[in-house]
């Protein structure tokens, strides 16, 4: 049995996925802003630069829409209105468990203290937890989006471990992002289990910079870690 005193989980794209399509949200942004549509969701995803600034999420989206507008010769468009429309269209309750997530969470609770470390703010993430019925499933919850520093900084992990009274060298973090979850866990001294959203992306792993202790094709494989598997 793997000797973990605490097991931490990421939320978005680890335990759950958003069931709203990108097309629905993108179209809703233009409808809410009262503007004629230009571009495609893929244009916006490409235009967004790095992770969002949790202090100005609308500004982050507005910058992306401004780049898309320039690409389509639509300078002068109210990109702030589009950003607000985008945020207003997102239904944070439209979430569902990733395959194996419920069983993984139950198995973790049978073996160790369990925490949640998510980069989203409480106002959004608590809606998802309620929709999934797991608001009370964790011994500690850290909404890093409300902290000065988010993953991959060690602070969110440190706070969760302090709340669980657990040591980093006896703890595991499970997440989908190499940059935020795996590297962040390593910075804080935890082992990491990487469960990418799309199967087959294991080949994108750079072991010199990340090297998670465990690579999972699905959370259905998680219990093998607790049973001492690879």
Automatic annotation (TrEMBL):
GO terms for molecular function: N-acylneuraminate-9-phosphatase activity. Pfam families: Hydrolase. Its cofactor is Mg(2+). Keywords: Hydrolase, Magnesium. Gene3D superfamilies: HAD superfamily/HAD-like (3.40.50.1000), Haloacid dehalogenase hydrolase-like domain (1.20.120.710). The keyword Magnesium applies. GO terms for biological process: N-acetylneuraminate biosynthetic process. The keyword Cytoplasm does not apply. InterPro entries: HAD-like_hydrolase, HAD-like_sf, HAD-SF_hydro_IA, HAD_sf. PANTHER family: N-ACYLNEURAMINATE-9-PHOSPHATASE. Belongs to the HAD-like hydrolase superfamily. This is HAD family hydrolase.
């Amino acid at each position: 049995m793997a000797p973990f005193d605490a097991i931490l989980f990421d939320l978005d794209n680890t335990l759950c996925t958003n069931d709203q399509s990108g097309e629905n949200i993108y179209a809703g942004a233009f409808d809410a802003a009262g503007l004629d549509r230009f571009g495609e969701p893929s244009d916006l995803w490409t235009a967004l630069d790095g992770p969002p600034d949790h202090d100005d999420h609308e500004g982050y989206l507005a910058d992306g829409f401004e780049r898309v507008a320039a690409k389509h010769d639509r300078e002068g468009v109210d990109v702030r209105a589009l950003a607000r429309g985008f945020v207003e269209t997102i239904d944070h309750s439209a979430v569902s468990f990733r395959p194996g997530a419920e069983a993984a969470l139950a198995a973790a609770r049978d073996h160790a203290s369990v925490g949640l470390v998510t980069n989203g703010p409480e106002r959004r993430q608590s809606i998802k937890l309620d929709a999934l019925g797991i608001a009370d499933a964790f011994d500690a919850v850290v909404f890093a989006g409300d902290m000065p520093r988010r993953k991959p900084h060690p602070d969110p992990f440190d706070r969760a471990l302090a709340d669980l009274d657990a040591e980093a060298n006896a703890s595991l973090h499970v997440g989908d992002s190499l940059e935020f979850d795996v590297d962040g866990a390593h910075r804080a001294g935890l082992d990491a289990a990487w469960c990418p959203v799309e199967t087959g992306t294991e080949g994108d792993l750079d072991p010199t910079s990340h090297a998670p202790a465990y690579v999972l094709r699905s959370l259905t494989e998680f219990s093998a870690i607790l049973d001492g598997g690879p």
